[in-house]
């Protein structure tokens, strides 16, 4: 029997197109975003812009040889120029602006720049944003308290729905990550917002930490781990009470669905300066490496029509059923009814 893939369409929400420092003034990038070819560019005034990639004139790809001219992008084929809102700005050889060109518009994605990332809004029916990307502490110029930012990018062969499921699956932590205990977790869900708070034991010398960053003369410690998510594209993580001085760890996970079997995760992590030289890299490296321990399961596991979980996995069951119900409501279809999940009594 062939492996069944996750059946959902591209999710709606804010997703990361690129990091802010990777799209400088005048830069043009050709990208795949939610199964669409798009072009991202930064105008001369610094405005990040994302448009569908193909010039409506004769179909040239604006990301393949297109260039920024002022506040527009110029097509590499006939030099038609397009504004950030997708309207035609100029046809260099036309004495009169054709009425059809005035009416023509390339689809432009709503874009915001926050937390060190450029985010584009995707909606299956091209409806506008229904929430904002939050500004997360420590990633918007508020640097006095925090140490160096570390960047990690993951190109993975799975979908964001699988990543979201993994985030609330506490039971895999001892087996896969070598956690000393199963985290005790409380969860709050309000629409597209989800918050979990876990008390967990950490070991700065366990197998998820690279040998060069292990702190072998330090014992295990308890920390409070808070995870907040907004839709499937934005996650903020924070740990507090880190030894030796009550330090803190913060992280942003900025995700992007590429297509129905590929995603990109972009992580930014840093710790407070008071623990940067002692446990800082053990914590950051341990979290970065722990992802690779889980990744093979997301890539190779099958999407089962009915999954059965032990009673202890009730939170995961509820989360996945909630995701199914959310999409069923969103797309006004009964297609998803067969993808329900059950907990044995």
Please describe what this structure looks like:
- The chain has 5 helices and 17 strands.
- The chain is of the alpha+beta class.
- About 30% of the residues are buried.
- It has 2 domains: about 15-120, Rieske Iron-sulfur Protein (3-layer Sandwich), CATH 2.102.10.10; about 150-300, Naphthalene 1,2-dioxygenase Alpha Subunit, Chain A, domain 1, CATH 3.90.380.10.
- Strand 5 (about 65-70) and strand 6 (about 70-75) form a beta hairpin.
- It starts with 12 loop residues before the first strand and ends in a 14-residue tail after the last helix.
Short note summarizing the structure:
Helix content is 18%, strand content 33%.
Write the CATH architecture name of the largest domain. Answer: Alpha-Beta Complex
Q: What's the CATH class label of the largest domain?
A: Alpha Beta
Oligomer: single chain
Biggest β-sheet description: 7 strands, antiparallel
Q: What's the rounded overall pLDDT mean?
A: 81
Radius of gyration: 23 Å
Low-pLDDT stretches are 297-314, 326-345
- Integer tally of domains: 2
Q: Helix and strand layout, with pairings?
A:
Elements: E1 13-19, E2 28-33, E3 36-42, E4 48-52, E5 67-69, E6 72-74, E7 81-83, E8 88-90, H1 99-103, E9 111-114, E10 117-122, E11 150-156, H2 160-167, H3 173-177, E12 184-190, E13 193-202, E14 221-230, E15 234-242, E16 247-259, E17 262-271, H4 276-300, H5 314-331
């Amino acid at each position: 029997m062939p492996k069944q893939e996750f059946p959902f369409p591209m999710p709606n929400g804010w997703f990361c197109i690129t990091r802010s420092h990777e799209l400088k003034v005048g830069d043009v990038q050709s990208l795949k975003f939610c199964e669409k070819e798009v072009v991202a560019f930064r105008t001369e005034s610094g405005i990040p812009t994302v448009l569908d990639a193909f010039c409506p004139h004769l179909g040239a790809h604006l990301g393949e040889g297109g260039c920024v001219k002022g506040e527009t992008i110029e097509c590499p084929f006939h030099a038609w120029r397009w504004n950030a809102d997708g309207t035609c700005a100029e046809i260099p050889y036309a004495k009169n602006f054709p009425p059809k060109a005035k009416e023509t518009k390339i689809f432009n994605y709503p874009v915001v720049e926050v937390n060190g990332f450029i985010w584009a809004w995707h909606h299956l029916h091209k409806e506008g944003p229904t929430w904002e990307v939050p500004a997360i502490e420590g990633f918007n110029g508020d640097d006095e308290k925090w140490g160096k930012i570390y960047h990690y990018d993951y190109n993975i062969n799975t979908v964001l729905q699988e990543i979201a499921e993994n985030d609330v699956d506490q039971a895999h932590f001892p087996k896969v990550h070598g956690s000393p205990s199963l985290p005790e977790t409380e969860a709050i869900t309000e629409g597209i917002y989800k918050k979990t708070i876990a008390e967990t034991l950490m070991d700065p010398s366990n197998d998820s930490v690279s040998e060069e960053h292990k702190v072998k003369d330090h014992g295990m410690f308890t920390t409070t781990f808070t995870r907040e998510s907004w839709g499937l594209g934005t996650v903020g993580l924070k740990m507090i009470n880190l030894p030796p001085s009550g330090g803190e760890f913060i992280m942003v996970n900025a995700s992007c669905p590429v297509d129905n079997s590929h995603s990109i995760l972009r992580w930014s992590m840093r710790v407070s300066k008071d623990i940067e030289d002692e446990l800082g890299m053990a914590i950051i490296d341990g979290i970065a490496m722990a992802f690779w321990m889980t990744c093979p399961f997301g890539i190779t596991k099958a999407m089962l029509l009915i999954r059965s979980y032990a009673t202890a996995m009730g939170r995961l069951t509820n989360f996945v059923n909630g995701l199914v119900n959310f999409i069923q409501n969103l797309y006004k279809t009964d297609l998803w009814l067969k993808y329900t999940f059950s907990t044995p009594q």
